[in-house]
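Lab meeting tomorrow. Look over both lines:
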Amino acid sequence: MRLMNIENLDPEEVKKFDDLSEKWWDLNGDFKPLHQINPLRVNFIKERVDLEGKKVLDIGCGGGLLTEALSSLGADVIGIDASENTIGIAKSHAKLINSNVTYMQNTVENFIAENEYAEFDVITCLEMLEHVPEPNKIIESCSQLLKSEGNAFFSTINRNPRSYLFAVIGAEYILNLLPKGTHEYTKFIKPSELNNWIRRTDLEHRETIGLSYNPLTDQYWLGKDIQVNYMMHATKI
C-alpha cells in the first residue's frame, strides 16, 4: 500500500518496527514490556469508558496487543499502523484467535483523508507519539476524529535526565528490556507539552498518571510518578 501523506512519518522508525514485526507476540521477546503493561493500560481505559459497543480507533496499533484487548471488551475496533510488516502480523494473529478487529496499514492523516466522515467514541494512541516527527499533529487528528464527549488516551515518555537514564540507558543497554535504538531521547515529550497540544484542540485534559517499573521484581504499576512513562486521558469538548 502506498501512503499518500508522509510528512508526519519517519521512514527509519517504520523500518525499525518492520524489522521487529515477527516478535510482537513473543511473550518473552523484544516486546515483553508491552505485554506486561498491557493489562494496566487496558484497565486504565475501561475504568473510564464503558467499551461495550463503542467505536474505537487504535493509532499506532503495532501487532495488536491493545487493539485485541479492547475488542475483547466489546468494542468495535480499527487498528492502524504505518508498518506493513507489523500490520501483517496483527492480521495473522487476529485470524488465529478469531478476533473481529479491523487492521489497516495507514497513517492517521491518510485515514482522515480516506474516511472523511469517520467518527469514534474512543481513540487510543499509546507508545507512538515519540516515534513521529510532529506528534502535535497526531493530537489534532485525534480531536478531528472524536465524537463529541468522546475519549482519547495517550501514552509516551517524559523528557528529563531521569527518563534518559531509565528509558534509554537502563531499558535498552543495561537491563536489555528493549532493543537498542528503540527510543531517541530528543523525541521524548514532557507532559506540559502534550497538555499544551491538547488545549490547542477541541480536547480537554482529564487526567495524567505515571507508569513505574521495579527491575528487581520485574513489576509495573500505575501511580503518581510521571517522571518517565505516563498516560494521559482527554475528552472532546
Summary: The longest helix spans residues 32-46. The first strand starts at residue 55 and ends at 59. The CA atoms of residues 117 and 145 lie 8 Å apart. Confidence is low (pLDDT under 50) at residues 1-6.
